Amino acid sequence: MSRVLIIGAGGVGGVVAHKCAMNPDVFDFVCLASRSIDKCEKIQAQIRNKGYSLEIDRVDADNIDETAALISKYSPDVVINVALPYQDLTIMEACLKAGVHYVDTANYEHPDTAKFEYKEQWAKMDKFKEAGLTALLGSGFDPGVTNVFCAYAGKHYFDEIHYIDILDCNAGDHGYPFATNFNPEINLREVSSKGRYWEEGKWIETAPMEIMQVWDYPEIGPKDSYLLYHEELESLVQNIKGLKRIRFFMTFGQSYLTHMKCLENVGMLRIDEVEHNGQKIIPIQFLKTLLPDPASLAGRTKGKTNIGCFIEGVKDGKIRKIYIYNVCDHEACYAEVNSQAVSYTTGVPAFIGGMMVAKGEWRRAGVWNMEQFDPDPFMAALNEYGLPWVVKEL
Fold first, then answer.
1. Largest Cα–Cα distance in the chain?
2. What is the rounded CA–CA span in Å between residue 298 and residue 326?
3. Cβ of 202: how many Cβ atoms within 10 Å?
4. Of 28, 103, 109, 315, which is least packed with CB atoms within 10 Å of its CB?
5. Residue 259 in contact with residue 209, Cβ under 8 Å?
6. In 3D, which of 377, 372, 349, 348 has the Cα closest to residue 361?
7. What is the C-alpha separation between 184 and 294, in angstroms, rounded?
8. Residues 6+ apart with CB under 8 A from 240
9. β-pairing verdict for 274-276 and 245-251
10. Alpha helices in the chain (DSSP H)
11. Angle of CA points 83, 89, 92, to nearest 5°
12. Residue 283: cis peptide before it, omega within 30 degrees of 0
């Protein structure tokens, strides 16, 4: 059994806290920390109502020394970072200072630039190697499980993978005219940015939402799916040998796209400071305050998600195509851990990643992405802990 410290008490943090606390055979000590102690208290109460327990504490994850002191206070085997992507680098440094393994779900994003990349986290490779510590990056669903799906396909289904389309569908209905299923600031920065995909050795940039395809998602049906740039492409391009093209698609309803375009047109998606009534504000952060808290969507969201990978390559000299995916039900997630499926599909893999590192099944000094480890134990854990998957030959 192991000890875990979870930093971040949003929707995903709530799922990670539930799964860690509800599996005492994996983690016999669990602490949840956040700048907002009231959020921790709410999650703690939910977990106690289910007959489990965890400690809570307060931390400013922007402060390396304060975060390192918190880590040292509880002596966890692993820190699971589900705070904001802006805080990845400070939490990594705090783990180095305290001598503890690190897991996150999203790569670093600078608060002043709508751009996310692994470069600054990968640059810490030597520091983690010298410290003898593991940093596991992107242990959510996408990135995360999708990376593992690709590694699993490469190990068991292909001699060489040539084409990958990552396909993310949320067919849930929360009843609001407009809301985001995870942090609005991160979500809207991501989907309003230019698209990008990799083909024949180079990156190709597109206008936002320029490329659309209709994909028939099992248990959901056909949905308009739009090409975005997503962070797992950056590592998979480097680690999947023989790759000729990789793309990422996500579904959006017309109402969501219309609202987003209107907000963009009036400047509400801006990430720079503007002056309002003598005060400096950042429009997208003000918008986040106005929109429903993603965690509040949990009890009212119905429907399913389907996230997976269409993969084409060669096996024994013949072309082979498979579709590997998971379907998750919003209402079932709420019944289990008081969450909607978008948070659940990110939080469960974070719990599993933390477990893999803490138990030593995935442990190697340095900074690594998910596809760089043996996929088999992670795939088995997905089936065991709530995210069963299907492989369909096409």
1. 68
2. 19
3. 6
4. 28
5. no
6. 377
7. 8
8. 150, 151, 154, 161, 164, 246, 371
9. unpaired
10. 11-21, 37-49, 64-74, 88-98, 119-122, 125-131, 145-156, 184-191, 232-239, 254-265, 283-290, 330-337, 341-359, 375-385
11. 85
12. no
Q: Would you state the structure tokens that stand for residue 117, as one six-digit string?
A: 């990349």
Question: Count of residues for the chain?
Answer: 394
Task: Report CA 122 to chain centroid distance, whole Å.
Answer: 17
Q: Which two tokens stand for residue 379?
A: 């795939």
Amino acid at site 55: E
378: closest CA among 359, 358, 362, 394? 362
CB atoms under 10 Å from CB of 6, counted, come to: 35
CA distances from 169 to 249, 295, 296, 329, 345 (A): 9, 19, 20, 12, 12
- Checking DSSP bridges between strand 101-104 and strand 366-369, what pairing results, if any? unpaired
Q: Summarize pLDDT for 67-124 with one digit per residue, the tens.
A: 999 999 999 999 999 999 989 999 999 999 999 999 999 998 777 665 678 999 999 9
Cβ–Cβ < 8 Å for 59, 67: yes
Write out 28-86 in H/E/C secondary structure: EEEEEEECCHHHHHHHHHHHHHCCCCCEEEECCCCCHHHHHHHHHHHCCCEEEECCCHH
User: What counts of helices (H) and strands (E) characterise the chain?
Assistant: 14, 18
Q: Which amino acid appears at position 308 of this protein?
A: G
pLDDT per residue over 164-183, tens digit each? 999 999 999 988 888 887 67
Q: Does residue 271 carry a pLDDT above 90?
A: no
Average pLDDT value over all residues in the chain: 94
Distance in angstroms (rounded) separating the CA atoms of residues 154 and 329:
28
- Any idea what DSSP says for residue 109? B
By C-alpha distance, which of 47, 43, 46, 25 is closest to 34? 43
Which pLDDT value is given to residue 127?
Answer: 98
